[in-house]
Amino acid sequence: MSSVYPTRKSPPPEMATYTPPLTPPSNPVKSLKADPEPIDLHIPDNYVQHTLKTQKELPPISWNNWWRELQYLTVAILTITPSLAIYGMFTTKFRWQTALFSVFYYYVTGLGITAGYHRLWAHRSYNASRPLQYFLALAGSGAVEGSIKWWSRGHRAHHRYTDTDLDPYSAQKGFWWSHIGWMLVKPRRKPGVADVSDLSKNEIVRWQHRWYVWLILGMGFGLPTVVPGLFWGDWRGGFFFAGALRLTFVHHSTFCVNSLAHWLGESPFDDKHTPRDHVITAFATIGEGYHNFHHQFPMDYRNAIKWYQYDPTKWFIVACYKLGLASHLKTFPDNEVRKGQLTMQLKRLRQTQEKLTWAPDSNDLPVITWESFQEQSMKRPLILVAGFIHDVATFVDEHPGGRHLIVKYIGKDATTAFFGGVYDHSNAAHNLLSMHRVGILQHGYRQGLDDKAVPPAQRLRIARYSELGSSTAVSDAETLVGDKEDKDV
């Protein structure tokens, strides 16, 4: 997929990725003079460590002070709203028209957060026309989660300081803290610095911030009450169901991005931090559940990169692009996305690899002469294959071809016979034989045996970067072949 969806007015594809998502001012020179200075322009290089050491935390919450630490406005919103919904469920008839409208309005206001607050303004992952920006600003107001500027400031801090004490809703502090606790009590420390000067220049963001209280009343409760009331006479149902109950679901749907998306699922792109991918979270959050991908590639307008993954926010943005309402849809280079996937796949394979028992390292095996090999073969069944000496005492009677085929090669070189002369042994047989290695024949390596000296299971063995390039020269000193039992001890 191209890194940007081009439009007729878009720059060339190689430049489109870097196009700012917000419409540039008509007078750039005049605007630059009036631009506010980014708040993080002059922060020190060691800002995080310095802040954690010097910024004083509020005292821990206890039974003696919890009532002083509450953020009462947020507590009121997050308790009164569900209380109204529960009261309405027991006192108001649930009409099917209101039910359908409630679901519809849930998606409208939810998209105001996911497609608007989150992907457009917080991450600038695409450009939106003025009509679309106004629609998303109004829809986001109906979710009653703060203004665009306030919400985006906190979310940018969350991405910059993920899982640290400067993360306003760090998952390291527990599921319920990241879900709702961080909003109910005063933060123990100020969230890390995050610049929103670009949003301060956006007139639609400023407009919504200025009139936010009236917008949440109108879009949060006014509109969902009026529509059912005027069209099918269900004023109470509109208020309690399309208003309060729908708002409760929108709240906790969004909250799940901070909690469930950091707790449930897998980390297919990176496991450095807590974000995870899971389809259940995607269904609960209007497509924001592929959170591991999102934290790795936050500028991408998608959360789900596969066609069958549930991401209605992505579909909505694409539909807006098709209608000419959105442009410059940013995607992270596919090559880099696949690198992240491969890294995690290799890491999981490495974990599996470390649980297996492998053939002894050639550097740990004793080196003996041909004469010594033959002499010791008189006392124990030793055979030579690909320059390695093998003690086959425990396998003689288990050999599928009969013990006689092994006995005849005791004290001899069975390389040709093993690799097709008598029977072209399977990879499994080669792997098993390597586990019986007890020594290396001095000057016994033959040209053309490179692929045969390494067991098939180890040819693609995953090595850490610290293991690469390390090798130890084999000594020419004569030693005795040790018994496997002695080596294990």
Automatic annotation (TrEMBL):
List the keywords (alphabetical): Electron transport, Fatty acid biosynthesis, Fatty acid metabolism, Heme, Iron, Lipid biosynthesis, Lipid metabolism, Membrane, Metal-binding, Oxidoreductase, Transmembrane, Transmembrane helix, Transport
Where is it chiefly localized?
membrane
The membrane topology of this protein is: Multi-pass membrane protein
Q: Which CDD domains match?
A: Delta9-FADS-like
Subcellular location as annotated: Membrane
Q: Which reaction does it catalyse?
A: octadecanoyl-CoA + 2 Fe(II)-[cytochrome b5] + O2 + 2 H(+) = (9Z)-octadecenoyl-CoA + 2 Fe(III)-[cytochrome b5] + 2 H2O
Q: Which cofactor does it need?
A: Fe(2+)
One cellular component GO annotation, for this chain's record?
A: endoplasmic reticulum membrane
The enzyme's E.C. designation: 1.14.19.1
SUPFAM superfamilies tied to this protein: Cytochrome b5-like heme/steroid binding domain (SSF55856)
Tell me if Oxidoreductase is a UniProt keyword of this record: yes
Residue numbers spanned by region Disordered: 1-30
- Start and end residues of each Cytochrome b5 heme-binding domain: 383-442
Q: InterPro entries per the record?
A: Acyl-CoA_deSatase_haem/ster-bd, Acyl-CoA_DS, Cyt_B5-like_heme/steroid-bd, Cyt_B5-like_heme/steroid_sf, Cyt_B5_heme-BS, FA_desaturase_dom, FADS-1_CS
User: Family, per the entry?
Assistant: Belongs to the fatty acid desaturase type 1 family.
- Would you tell me the protein name for this molecule? Acyl-CoA desaturase
